[in-house]
Fold each of these.
Amino acid sequence: MKTVRLPPPARTGKIPLESALAARRSIREFTDEALTPQELSQLLWATQGITGPEDGLRSAPSAGALYPLETYLATADGLFHYDPVGHTLRQTSREDPRRAMCDSALAQESIVEAPAV
């Protein structure tokens, strides 16, 4: 299984948070184009990324800084676990899990069609 080191995430945005929240919509039609390493880096960092290197605090809130949630990425290449400390992806399976995920999510075909879930 492989490990992928991600590029550093951007720490400043191009639009205010409020504007991003107001414009947020669920998209269910995707191109076949894979996300770039920088895009993956940014999205994964936003889910659980380290924001306080000295104390291990993350971008996601957690009572007592216990961080019980884990982030996984599903692609045609398999399933990957996000390691916030190393800012890396570690492959846990070479099988594409998106069909099983689709079946578990009320048959939303967009899950199978998306380049990354």
Amino acid sequence: MGSGHRASVPSWAGFLHLAVVLDVYSRRIVGWAMETHLRTELILSALEMALPMRRPTDVIHYSDQGSQCTSIAFGVRCQQAGVRPTMGSVGDCLDKAMCENFLASPECELIDLRIFRSHAEASAEIFAYIEGFYNRRRRHSALGYQSPMAFELAAEAQQAVI
């Protein structure tokens, strides 16, 4: 399925924490969640959003060494969904480099340019960034300068021809 990681989004009301699940194939964010806490429910919510979108079978979920990703609840849910959780060693970012790269994008292109007054405002802007810009319009050199959704549509069209 991809890679999962989280970032913190500052606002006047305090931090919101963003967890994402990125499909490594298309670089599309297929699951995401925002909460005021860093408990396991945050990453479980992002995973729950991704599961019906991708209906994974025998896929790998790369993550960091955070307590949320090493929790029993996360491991059990991954097992139920047919997802194999894995993580690199401490300080190793290679398995989750694509996700780290994604998280740098809204940071540079949105978060560093604004001050959010509330959690609701921050959440709405992050939603618009992910669903309205990143997945639909942001081009990636690794995808032949297509957006994640355009890349997926082109791949589906090619499969239909075969």
Amino acid sequence: MKALRGSKLFAVQALLLFTLCAATAAPVSVRAQEGLKISTLEQLGEEFSSVPCKNEERLAAVKALFEKVGAPASDISIDHFKDVDNLVVLKRGTSTEKIVIGAHYDKVANGCGAIDNWTGIVALAHLYRSLKDVTLKKTLVFVAFGKEEKGLIGSHAMVGAIKKEELSQYCSMVNIDSLGLGPLQVADNMSSDKLGDLAAELALKMKVPLSRIVIENADADSSSFKGKKVPALTISGLNDDWRSVMHSSNDQPSVVNPTSVYLGYRLILYLLAHLEDSACTAYK
């Protein structure tokens, strides 16, 4: 990546840091406060000191990261499909209703895949860390999808394996793909309208900048769930120069803006609390 320099870099940093205090103060849920652990900006930033830059290293690194944030071995599984492996971590609730939170762990051949999509994996793991000791009604299914870059293979495989009679238990899906370059966005062409509107409403309450974008000729794992009528959403954190980073040798840990990752993590944490408190059919 050609890193942002001078006044443009300062403007992005200032905007994100200005909203950080508002994001930090945002409520998660009155009912969910007991056991809640809020990760810090520094903790998320530290995760990028070592990013696995080879695809064959990524799955094991995801597992190690979830173990680091406290996931017991009994809650971690690898779902083996014909063409792909997905890592799944369950945070069991008191009902059979489910919310899926996902991020793909694979990368393209070029670059280190720090932005696309180790940022998503880091946010995913810290969302688990925040909620693992909170009593919830809905079961949270944290999924690191494989082979997203090959055509959403991991998420297609997961959705295809859901039994027809169990599909109604899947209330919503939140996908995290490529934070770390700038303010947050909802990818509208990969997201359900009602969930996009909810994300925008909550961001406004938190005073976190969030825009609605359409990324032409692109797709994300949320689309696999939309295709099965499960409300789904993709959150990104890109800037005007994202095309010079994504899928290129410029996608390196040095270009990650931890504040962008942190704000994505905080917004999604707030979003999950709202989805947990809503009826399963609320956004269908």
